[in-house]
Amino acid sequence: MAELPPVPLTLEGSYALHQMFRFRRADWRQKESLHRNRILKEASSVIGAMGAGSALYSHIGHKGDLLLLHFRESLDGVHRAELAIAQTELADFLEPVHSYLSVIELGLYESSAKTYAELAAKGIAPHSPEWQAGVAEVITRQSAAMSSRLYPQIPAARYLCFYPMDRRRGESQNWYQVPMAERQRMMHEHGMIGRRYADSVKQIITGSIGFDDWEWGVDLFADEPLVFKKLIYEMRFDEVSAVYAQFGSFYLGVRIHVPDLPRVLAGELP
Questions:
Q1: Which residues carry out catalysis?
Q2: Which CA distances in Å does 5 have to 98, 122, 177, 178, 236?
Q3: How confident is the model at residue 114, as a pLDDT?
């Protein structure tokens, strides 16, 4: 029997697009108030029409001023949201500083090991038509059971923390050369830390391999921002993070409702 695949199965759901902008305040101040009001009315109408699948944040820090998050069931859907924003007159005053494209992902380490072992026990060769059919059955069943996690609403929490990350694949440590059973053990222990914070923070993991420069994106939603520091700090001591994790830039935002956009651009935080 051929060696079992090292790649765990994954479930994919909604596509996610993060858009980060810098607001060109100097150009904005040169416009007459009536013109600004018309621009804001149009932008508010466009963003408001996007519904619960999009959320607007006032970005904290020098990396930008506004952050837009979109969840859609298709890649075309998030691109349509992007194009709709670009067509507003407000976009003339928004300088894109970063974006991140990914898809909500659930890893199935435990189910993968079980499925691969059961198929191998039946004498089914990896990647054969019979093997692929068995895997597809598991994916279909698990996707139905996990539908609410694969296609979630954007949490209504006041604060958002977003960051991309990789698994190390060079130097003396390479995540992708670790046997799947060991990766499964480490991910299980890693996940147990997150569960202890489940009452105070909502976490959504997205996969971006083939879509963007990092391998995963992490969105944390909470009403108390200090929980971001506590959760991420504790996870740094966990084996999977301490040995194999590499982190990108962090982005922190405050949720704002569309009617409050004029106040935020005027320098007020509702």
A1: 163
A2: 36, 16, 12, 12, 29
A3: 92
